[in-house]
Structures are given as C-alpha cells and as structure tokens.
Design brief:
The chain is globular. The chain is an alpha/beta fold and 307 residues long. Helix content is 37%, strand content 21%. Helix 7 packs across helix 9 and helix 8 crosses helix 9.
Length: 307
C-alpha cells in the first residue's frame, strides 16, 4: 500500500512537471527573446515583429511604429506616411478584423504622422499633445487628420483591458513630443530623442540640446524595462533594453562637453571644430563619420548663439 501511494505521488509530480514545462513563455521572456534579434525584411521594404501581449512593432525603411490588438479594437501609433500606413493596415487585417479605434501621434513632424487618413474609414480617433493643434494648423497636411483628443501633461488611453499612457516632458524635440508607455509590460515607445547605437540626426533639426538631456534623465526614472525606438534599419532589433536611454544621454553630454571644452580653449570656428572634435567611444555607432561633424556644428550654435 505504501509503495502504491509513493508511486501515485511520483506520477502526480511528474504530471505537474510536464504541465509546468508546457506552459507558454511569459511576456517578459518574450520581450527578452526579442532583444538583439534583427527586425528583418528588405532595406527599403517593411517588416513586422510580434514582441508579446498583442504588441507588434512595424517597420517601414528606417522608421518604426507599433500597434496593439485588444479585444475591443486596435491602438496604432505613428502612421508614418500614406504608403506605410496602408502597409500597416494590411498587417493589422492579417491578424484581426477589429477596427483601429485610436491613432496616437508622437509629435508634429510629418515624416512620422502622415497617412492617418488611411484609418478614417474605420472610425479611428486621433490623439496628440495640445501643442500639436497649432503646429498642424500652421503646417497642415491633407494626410494628417487633426487630433480629436488632446492633452497637456499626460493622458491614459484604455481599450479592451489594455492601458497606454501618454506623457509630455516639455520641449526637447519640437514642443509637442510625447512618449507612449505600456505600464504593465514596462515598455516605452520613444520617437527621435532615443535612437539606439546611432549618433544624432545630421544637424539636429528642431532639437533643444539641453532640454533633450533633461528629458532623457527624466525618462531614466520611469519604471520601464524595454524601449521601442522610432528609428532603426532592418538589421537592428525591434525592442531594446531601457539602458539605451542612458547611452543616448551620455552621447549628447559627451558631445556637448567636448565642444564646450574646445571653445573654452580658443577654438571658435565651426569649421575647425568639425575637424577637431572626435568621440572615439562612439565611432562604432551608425552614421558616426557622416553626421558627427554636423552634430558638432549644432552644439557650436547652441553655445555661440544660445540656440
């Protein structure tokens, strides 16, 4: 009898072990698995990468966005442009017949938010920062529907039991940029102010260097583990660890310190600064050779002109 009882306990233990082994991977494991895995696809094409919990990262060329499928519909971020928006819509339709209920704009720059009209027939509502209204009125586009929902500091979007928190950190890249955060998954979608393993874009158009650093410091305090960045080629992963925020801040700080030190030592010609300033710590980053000189000249303008 005792032997029978022991065998029964052993069988139950083995069964529970098999069941535990067969459980699907957790969201955290799914997110971790996506880190360092290229998003893939053709350079000038598009690709899609599920990263867990119904969240999909969408790539068109070097632009990134996302959509999340819920039981009640879809939330989509930046539609990029009409061509990209149609491709995103087609990818959504492959996965669900539920409509896109919300399209969230990250900021005013047309290269990220054009193409919103593609989702109008689905009854989508458009969300963005309140400063976006004036900017779009000053620079309208027929491909960009005006926001239906605006906010000043933060806005919580809920749909189908999912939560997306939108947060504004003041001027940094323009004056309407918001970050989008999945608080449960601890994922942040951030546009332009964090581009992993790449120096700043050309001459930093519409960037405020000091406010950029301030914002990055504030983002570092958020309860997040992962970052979806809005730029990156097909060879880069769809999702990165949150440490890329710190890496971006350190690059801007190192750049500013190097330019300021050189100017304090008597180099005031922007042409000479472009030739002199080198940041070997970042020479493996994308566009280092082409764009570092332009980054340097932008920081020269910040110190020389107060702009």
């Amino acid at each position: 009898m005792k032997s029978y009882f022991q065998k029964t306990i052993l069988m139950i233990g083995l069964l529970l072990s098999v069941i535990a082994t067969a459980q699907p991977t957790t969201s955290s494991q799914t997110f971790e698995a996506a880190i360092n895995v290229p998003i893939g696809g053709e350079t000038w094409g598009h690709s899609i990468k599920p990263i867990g919990n119904g969240i999909y990262v969408f790539r068109w060329w070097v632009y990134r966005s996302f959509f999340v499928i819920t039981d009640e519909g879809v939330i989509a971020a930046d539609p990029i442009n009409p061509k990209a928006a149609k491709l995103m819509q087609a990818e959504i339709r492959k996965r669900t017949d539920k409509p896109v209920k919300y399209v969230v704009y990250s900021h005013n720059h047309h290269d990220h938010i054009s193409g919103g009209t593609v989702f109008q027939k689905e009854g989508a509502r458009y969300v963005g920062h309140s400063n976006l209204l004036k900017e779009l009125k000053d620079h309208p586009s027929p491909a960009i529907p005006m926001p239906d929902i605006t906010f000043d500091k933060s806005y919580t979007l809920t749909l189908g039991g999912r939560t997306l928190k939108l947060e504004y950190f003041g001027p940094n890249h323009g004056n309407s940029l918001v970050v989008m955060r999945f608080p449960q998954e601890k994922i942040l979608f951030v546009v332009d102010i964090v581009t992993p393993r790449r120096v700043a874009f050309r001459n930093m158009p519409d960037f405020w260097p000091d406010e950029w650093v301030r914002t990055l410091k504030e983002l570092e305090q958020l309860d997040i583990d992962y970052v979806i960045a809005a730029h990156g080629p097909e060879t880069q992963p769809a999702i990165d660890p949150a440490s890329v925020i710190t890496e971006q801040r350190e690059y801007i700080e190192d750049l500013m310190l190097s330019v300021k030190t050189a100017m304090d030592n008597g180099i005031h010609s922007p042409d000479k600064l472009r030739q002199t300033i080198k940041l070997p710590k970042y020479e493996h980053w994308r566009s280092y050779d082409k764009w570092l000189p332009m980054n340097v000249e932008r920081i020269w303008a910040y110190y020389h002109m107060g702009w």
